[in-house]
Design a protein that fits this description.
The complex is a heterodimer of chains A (304) and B (111). Chain A is an all-alpha fold and 304 residues long. Chain A contains 15 helices and two strands. In chain B, β2 (20-21) and β3 form a beta hairpin. Classes of the chains: A mainly alpha (304), B alpha+beta (111). The A-B interface holds A 193, 248, 251-252, 254-257, 265-266, 268-271, 273-274, 281, 284-285, 288-289 and B 68, 71-72, 75-76, 78-79, 82-85, 87-89, 91-92, 94-95.
Chain lengths: 304, 111
């Protein structure tokens, strides 16, 4: 395990992330093909079939309520043709990073890698655990709400969903490489009632949204998603309502019971964030149930 | 949310969330039916032992919603001076079908 450097800077994070297991060659081949705007989707399907697990998951997802097709999609080829380049690319990236996540989860579940810390110096001891499934469920709820709300602010729902889905990836990356430091940081946040991103900036010089963006950039994720995540970290650079909307969805997901790490204070939303998200409050209220239904459907397919 | 209850716990006002059929498949009552004393007697006479109802009207549903409301109120407690957070909290409380904070305080003080 890498030790914590004196300066936890961008170059170090990028370098550290390279230690995560790389995408399989089959996934890389598919992504390379999809990088061509006029990729032949039949050939993409043939490449996908080299990795039967990935191909099966693409087919499953194509038939989920996420895409809302009224009839059953029967083959990977049909799924690729109907979904199109942009959507298949997002889907393959999602499933590929989920694969990385599963590797990271196995690492965290190893008893040699402690995931709980107890601070006995406090009047009441603080115990905190990082559960990757719990972090992932929270992210998925953020993504589902963001997708349902994006249409109302005239933004691509798939991009909003994907950005939401990966906005907490940085937490996992930080914990994966620096478990003790991350837990120390989280306990400090809990103890001092400080939101996690402020604590991360203090302990690591960088917050998990930035780490998410860096991680996805390292895996050559589409820039639209990387940019949104960078902007969630620094809302002054936001070029669309989506980074604001994701901050609202983060609070709502926690309020709906999908909590990334138990006991941490909320990342509060002020009037300016709510206003800049362009969300109609009536629409927000009306979309909670559809968001929850989508979450219920996708969590069965994406989270073990 | 769906909850399966024994016929002995059925009360007028509860909503069926599934079509109800006899053991040989004959239709009894459709999904969405609001139970009345008469319907409950009918189900008992047809030897129906369990029914699926909306948890909105069940005791365990109410307890669960109250616990959820309490959790949300505690979670948002540090932000009661931020109007946006109060707005989001109240949306969540309405979504739970719970009670507003004022009602919550009133209920707590009467316990």
């Amino acid at each position: 395990m890498t030790s914590n450097p004196a300066q936890f800077n961008r170059a170090f994070v990028v370098n550290t992330i390279k230690d995560l297991p790389p995408f399989s060659s089959a996934i890389n081949d598919v992504l390379t093909m999809l990088d061509e705007n006029r990729a032949d989707m039949s050939k993409v399907a043939e490449k996908l079939l080299v990795d039967p697990i990935l191909a099966g998951r693409v087919l499953h997802m194509a038939n989920s309520s996420f895409y809302g097709f009224s009839r059953q999609i029967g083959s990977v080829r049909e799924a690729c043709v109907i979904l199109g380049n942009h959507t298949v690319k997002n889907l393959v990236y999602t499933l590929a990073v989920m694969g990385q996540f599963e590797e990271a989860k196995k690492h965290a579940e190893n008893p040699n890698n402690k995931t709980t810390i107890t601070d006995n110096n406090m009047q009441e001891p603080v115990s905190l655990t990082v559960d990757y499934n719990q972090v992932w469920r929270h992210s998925l709820m953020v993504g589902c709400l963001a997708m349902k709300l994006a249409e109302s602010v005239k933004y691509d729902p798939v991009t909003a969903y994907t950005a939401g889905l990966f906005q907490e990836l940085g937490m996992i990356i930080l914990h994966y490489f620096f478990p003790d430091k991350f837990l120390e940081c989280s306990v400090w946040a809990q103890k001092n009632n400080v939101c996690l991103i402020d604590a991360e900036r203090k302990f690591f010089g960088i917050d998990h949204f930035q780490v998410s963006a860096l991680g996805l950039d390292t895996w050559h994720f589409p820039n639209t998603i990387v940019d949104v995540l960078s902007q969630v970290s620094d809302l002054s650079n936001a070029t669309t309502p989506i980074p604001y909307l994701l901050r609202v969805c983060d609070v709502m997901a926690t309020g709906m019971g999908e909590i990334s790490i138990d006991g941490l204070p909320l990342m509060a939303v002020d009037d300016k964030i709510l206003e800049n998200s362009h969300i109609d409050i009536t629409v927000l209220e009306a979309q909670l149930t559809p968001g929850r239904k989508l979450f219920s459907d996708l969590s069965k397919q994406l989270i073990a | 949310m769906k909850e399966e209850i024994g016929i002995g716990d059925a009360l007028p006002g509860m909503l069926l969330v599934e079509d109800l059929r006899t053991s040989n498949g004959a239709a009894l009552l459709p999904e969405g039916t609001e139970l009345t004393e008469k319907y409950i007697e009918l189900l008992k006479s047809k030897s129906i032992t369990h029914i699926a109802v909306s948890s909105t009207h069940t005791e365990s549903g109410k307890t669960r919603r109250q616990a959820e409301s309490d959790r949300v109120i505690t979670l948002f407690e540090p932000y009661t001076d931020m109007s946006a957070m109060v707005l989001l909290r109240d949306i969540l409380l309405r979504d739970i079908g719970g009670v507003s904070e004022n009602e919550h305080d009133e209920q707590s003080s009467t316990v």
